[in-house]
UniProtKB/TrEMBL annotation:
GO terms for biological process: phosphorelay signal transduction system; regulation of DNA-templated transcription. GO terms for molecular function: DNA binding. PROSITE patterns: HTH_LUXR_2, RESPONSE_REGULATORY. Residues 153-218 form the HTH luxR-type domain. The lineage of its organism: Bacteria, Bacillati, Actinomycetota, Actinomycetes, Kitasatosporales. This is DNA-binding response regulator.
Amino acid sequence: MAGQPIRVVIADDEPLIRAGIRMILISDPDIQVVGEAADGRAAVEAARAHAADVVLLDIQMPVLDGLSALPELRRAAPGARVIILTTFGERENVLRALEHGGAGFLLKDTAPAELIGAVRAAAAGDAYLSPAATRHVVERLAKGREAARAEEARGRVAALSEKERDVLALLGEGLSNADTGKRLHMSEGTVKTYVSRILAKLDCENRVQAALLARDAGL
């Protein structure tokens, strides 16, 4: 991506929200808003037509809602990273979106700097969970999950080394690579290497899925 702008599609059925997000994003010279959509079907087409790097996808939209659009979008534009736009009242929908390969989520009242940071992180291949909501959402979503799921998660985590489990546990708390490194006395680069290894061993697409798995396993 070096030297090339990050190509973003904004999908939300509210014009004012799209306009606000667009104004924030275009303030960064490294980000280009290449398309907008007011429904899920249009979002899929826009992501494909514009070869989007990142799609900001609202859950509640007409024609095709965000959850239904997500698998179609990932097939139509496999190189696009999808960040879900949400509110606290949509936690269960967020869980379903993350489990189906969403790269993370942002609250709609996210600060401008955080919005830009999330787009940059997603474009770089990292999942992004709003720091203000990570622990709250993951803990709430983890409650009441089926015993069979927890057992399956523990079985998968058992394949990790002790140090890998330590790193995974901090992913489950929503810590960044830098903060994880400080906790475990590692360099940020070393943590990044551990995270890549953990994702491969657990067959997780991104940090979000690994964090949910950590919670299922009781880490």
